[in-house]
Amino acid sequence: xxxxxxxxxxxxxxxxxxxxxxxxxxxxxxxxxxxxxxxxxxxxxxxxxxxxxxxxxxxxxxxxxxxxxxxxxxxxxxxxxxxxxxxxxxxxxxxx
Length: 96
Description:
- By secondary structure, the chain is mostly helical.
- The chain has one domain (about 1-90).
- It is built from five helices and no strands.
- It has helices at about 1-20, 25-45, 45-55, 65-80, 90-95.
- The two termini are about 25 Å apart.
């Protein structure tokens, strides 16, 4: 769900140039964005591998902690989308 909300939140930014220049029709651009966001959700394991490498004590990561993190990030994405705020979704985006 987090990837879904992040995807629809960022699709406009990611595909704007392709649509405005006429390189892709809007429906195709949104479709491409959807496919690539879904692929990214399943292929990107770098964050999980970093956390599993000992960065976080596995005993501290409970189902409640995971659920709270996902709920918070989903609510943040929905709130910023609804309020038309365009903040970075992830800390590494803020530093770039």
